[in-house]
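User: Show me a protein chain along with its predicted structure.
Assistant: Here is one chain, sequence first, then structure tokens.
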Amino acid sequence: MTQAQRSILVVVHAHRDETVDAAERVVEALVAAGARPVLAADDRDALAQERPAFADIAALGEDVPVEDIELAIVLGGDGTILRAAELVRDGTAPVLGINMGHVGFLAEIERDDMDDAVRRVIARDYRVEERLALAVRVKDSEGGEIYETWALNEATVEKASRERMLEVVIEIDGRPLSTFGCDGVVVSTPTGSTAYNFSGGGPVIWPSVEAIAVVPLSAHALFAKPLVVGPEAAVAIEVLERTNGTGILWCDGRRSHDLPPGARVVVRRSEQPVRLARLHPSAFTDRLVRKFRLPVEGWRGPDTAAVPVIGDARRPT
């Protein structure tokens, strides 16, 4: 009995020369190792315009079902990684990000380590980390469900018109918290806490903490500070019918839905987490310092007398 060929999805920002070159190297390495590279159909078409050989690569959904994908290798920035998470959402494949962008908070490694990363993928030398995701439902003024989606980083209710303010009421676990006018409300996961949540004044949440952040944007209210609620909390944002205009829901900046007055957005923990492939143990503190270029001059080092081990990473007490 022959062993089934391994299918590895390659997700790439197909309109940059450096990522096209990187995709070619990754595909060649996978083929040489006996694995089957797979591309999203849109990526394959775009890459084939640059390099005709890409036209012969198997397409996700057309040639290979998402359930057969073992892992997704992502060449790009955080936006490309979010797109990859969307592509494999109906399967179980973890996502490995190789940063070809700028900040690249979700990426595991930088482009200089790409060849080693592919080698370790082929050797199955990685661990999988599960990240809390959000389930998002929109109901109309009559209580009927009209839209359903999910988010890895955040779900954001925003005003649709620049010149108009959005009036909302916030509800936590079935109880009203506050009503105010605002530009919007961000509901974020720990993974997304360094993205829109952070820009809006919300707290950075360590990935090991299971929680949901709620951050009003430019709110006209005395009590409209960022909140952190438990991972099982249900957060509801209702667009009040007296609002002069409409709102819009955005999830990860990729999926949107219009919100008429009276619409209600309910956000809670998704039963299906997002799986990220990790190659190296890494303290989240180090990632913050590196990505945000934080000053740490003057630090004298950890207390070496007691350095507990947390999983694979060591940290000072």
